Amino acid sequence: MFSEIIQPRFSDTDALGHINNTMLPVWFEGARDAVFKLFTPDLDLNKWQLIIAKYDVTFHAELFYGQEIELRTYISRVGGASFDVYQEAWQHGEKCVSGTTVMVNFNYSDKKAMPISESIKIELNKHIYQE
Amino acid sequence: MFSEIIQPRFSDTDALGHINNTMLPVWFEGARDAVFKLFTPDLDLNKWQLIIAKYDVTFHAELFYGQEIELRTYISRVGGASFDVYQEAWQHGEKCVSGTTVMVNFNYSDKKAMPISESIKIELNKHIYQE
Amino acid sequence: MFSEIIQPRFSDTDALGHINNTMLPVWFEGARDAVFKLFTPDLDLNKWQLIIAKYDVTFHAELFYGQEIELRTYISRVGGASFDVYQEAWQHGEKCVSGTTVMVNFNYSDKKAMPISESIKIELNKHIYQE
Amino acid sequence: MFSEIIQPRFSDTDALGHINNTMLPVWFEGARDAVFKLFTPDLDLNKWQLIIAKYDVTFHAELFYGQEIELRTYISRVGGASFDVYQEAWQHGEKCVSGTTVMVNFNYSDKKAMPISESIKIELNKHIYQE
Predict the structure, then answer these.
(1) What pTM was computed for the model?
(2) From A20, which residue of chain C is nearest by alpha-carbon distance?
(3) Is some CB atom of chain D closer than 8 A to the CB atom of C50?
(4) What is the dihedral of CA B45, B51, B56, B57, to 10 degrees?
(5) Could you give the CA distance from residue B84 to residue C37 in angstroms, rounded to a whole number?
(6) Residue D91 domain flag
(7) Is the pLDDT of residue C15 over 80?
(8) Mean pLDDT value of segment C29-40
(9) Among partner residues B17, B21, B22, which is closest to D15 by beta-carbon distance?
(10) Disulfide-capable partner of A30 in A17, B56, D9, D44 (CB 3.0 to 4.6 Å)?
(11) Best mutation target, B10, B24, B92, B108, to test chain C (most C CBs within 10 A)
(12) C5 touching D, CB under 8 A?
């Protein structure tokens, strides 16, 4: 599990007084940096090799401004050329949001999916989600 | 079906040269205004009665800056107190992104789900998605 | 003057119930597309030749969700290698926000400012701001 | 001086390969939390008493994804009912962006500016910017 603590910003709120739902994909993508580094250790965009296929986000409880949020990032599936990242946002002792993102190992010059190397699979499996 | 044409903004792109995936929930929420008005015709935030339970977003093809995008919004399920909004983003003649959002009719003072009225159900059913 | 009408989105609001101040640079950049096209008519990012040097934004009145906003874009200065874009956001019959952005004609391969061509200067001058 | 370290997110970049200019007001507002707490120690939005009058942002050098950024926040003017916050964004040993925000002590029920109390002025003066 990778953990990141963030401080929600005033601009992340909406007129209903809590964090707007559209911030979660932004935060979750930020927290996936730890996963991106398994593929591109220096995060060099010219060597990027991941593309997003799909994500879902489920809201369990409201998130608020003024209290820090913990983002927990796990790997929940390792396939041949793709894998799933499962993430949670915790605040005030509660799991407030969870979601899964399907990432594909991708060759941007060919525009084709590529098999994930065995060495990266080993790294991904170190962070596997256990319910 | 509700249709909205938007012009993607420079700031919606990311370093891979296309539209960043996190913009889709923003655009889809914007395009749900048409649905919000069935519940709160003047969009008065003090009378707001919808809360988001879940959404998913699937990426079929890249979206680019410099060409307009059509957002298509349908209702794909009408339940007792909740309903699903199915949406698509089209550009260069292709369905590039699709996604479904589960909305709940919600009483913000009680913090409880409420049954959707029959008259609103009739309106929602006018925009039902047919595959 | 270039004019663009936008519909503010729910996610553009903040917990104080109005549009968050950080949306204005986003909207103003979007509305500068008309100016970008004078330099790069097809908005092809590989031929981009503008860089931002500075901007300021002044808030005269609150902007709200639920009513459309007109973005007005003018040129307020044409220099040798740089120019100023002056913009306003209007809602409910009022000029609510105004701001100026300093743009530089820039060669991304040399990382150097370049003189603006006479033909582009003529185009810029057609949209000059008159108080 | 208040200092905050942030990790720029993938979604903060744009198609030119660096951080998009519109992120700076977002980050600077986030970093002003330290200042907001001088007025509203618990950041309770129902007791909020600040409004933004104006800001400017100047770009000195590009900011990139993949390296942390330090946001430095100072007070550069203390007036009767308003004050200026001067901020800088540093990366790779360089001051890349700077900007000043004019904040007004504001009574949201009366919609009127209010004098800043002497005790808050003392706190603000502890963080004054010295060139």
Answers:
(1) 0.97
(2) C11
(3) no
(4) 0
(5) 39
(6) yes
(7) yes
(8) 97
(9) B17
(10) D9
(11) B10
(12) no
- D54/C59 touch (CB, cutoff 8 Å), yes or no: yes
- Rounded CA separation B8/C33 (Å): 10
d(CA D73, CA C104): 27
Residues of chain B under the 70 pLDDT cut = none
Phi, psi of D15 (to 5 degrees): -65, -10
Q: Is residue A62 one of the residues assigned to a domain?
A: yes
| CA pair distance B76, D52, nearest whole angstrom | 42
To the nearest 10 degrees (0 to 180), the angle between helices D23-31 and C23-31 is 170
Q: Within a 10 A sphere around the Cβ of B20, how many other Cβ atoms?
A: 25
Residue A35 lies in a domain: yes
- B-D contacts (CB, under 8 Å): 28
Give the Cβ contact number of residue D70 at 10 Å.
14
Alpha carbons C85 and D14: distance in angstroms, whole number: 21
Secondary structure (3-state) at A88: strand
What does the block give as tokens for A86? 């499962």
CA angle D71, D12, C68 (to 5 degrees): 105
With contact defined as beta carbons under 8 Å apart, do C36 and C58 qualify?
no
Identify the CA nearest to C75 among candidates C116, C112, C23. C116
Residue in chain B nearest C66 by alpha carbon: B43
CB pairs under 8 A between A and D: 42
> Among D89, D86, D70, D69, which residue's Cα sits nearest to residue D130?
D86
Q: Is B54 on the interface with C (CB under 8 A)?
A: no
Q: Kindly give the pairing relationship between strand C69-78 and strand C82-91.
A: antiparallel
Å between A29 CA and nearest CA of chain B: 8
**Predicted ipTM?**
0.96
Which one-letter amino acid corresponds to residue C96?
A: C
CATH number (domain holding residue B60)? 3.10.129.10
Number of structural domains found in chain B: 1
Q: Give domain status of residue D130, yes or no.
A: no
Taking 70 as the pLDDT cut, the residues of chain D under it are: none
Could you read off the pLDDT of A64-115 as tens digits, one per residue?
Answer: 999 999 999 999 999 999 999 999 999 999 999 999 999 999 998 898 999 9
Distance from the C46 Cα atom to the nearest Cα atom in chain A, whole angstroms: 15
The type of residue at A72 is: R
Task: Return the number of other C-beta atoms located less than 10 Å from residue A114's C-beta.
Answer: 13
Contact D45 C108 (CB under 8 A): no
